[in-house]
Each structure stands twice: as C-alpha cells, then as structure tokens.
Amino acid sequence: HWDGTLTYHPTCHALRGMRINRQPRALLANVRGAQIVDLPAAEDCCGFGGIFSVEHPELSAEWLKRKIANLEKTQSPALVVIETGCLMHIAGGLHRQKKSQRVVHIAEVLASQ
Known about the structure:
Largest sheet: 4 strands, parallel
Radius of gyration: 13 Å
Shape: globular
Number of helices: 6
Number of strands: 4
Distance between the termini: 5 Å
Strand content: 5-15%
Structural class: alpha/beta
Helix content: 40-55%
C-alpha cells in the first residue's frame, strides 16, 4: 500500500532504446493508495545518459534543473524511475538543491503492495 502521490519519469534507455513506456505506467496505476500525476515534459532526458553527464556536464546540469522544476510542478513528493542512473542523478540534484521530494525505484513502490 502506498499513501500519496507519485509521478513517473520514463528513462531514456527504457523509452527510446527498449520501447518500454506502457508497462511501468500500468504497474503504477494498480498501486493501492497511490495517486498518479503526470510529469510535465516527462519524456525529456534528466541529463544523466550514461557518460553524457561526464562528457557534457553543463547540458546535463541544465536538463536536470528542468526535470526537477517539472517535478515541483506536480507537487508530488515522489518521482518513480526504473533505472538507477536516473535515480542517482535526480536524487543528487534534489539533495544539492535542498528539495524535499525523493526519487524511488519502481521496485520499492511495488514492494509496498
């Protein structure tokens, strides 16, 4: 059981590389107690992208700022991801900006059932 609001970030590798989009959303739609809100510009990259964040740190930082700003627009306390790279990148950005939202892996949400 999950009490509260969730929003979902479809990760680039899953979305573009593996064409995984519907499945995580379907799983989240069935989480008891969760209200799912859409993340504005959800399909925009968070800026991690494997070595992209190392090779292009300025772009990566800007894309991360936009992702966090869009998370704030949802007023959701939790952003769900399916890849650990995005989880670490966004969670680090939230921490550095002293934001209260958190990033959770979909497995954590599903395990709460």
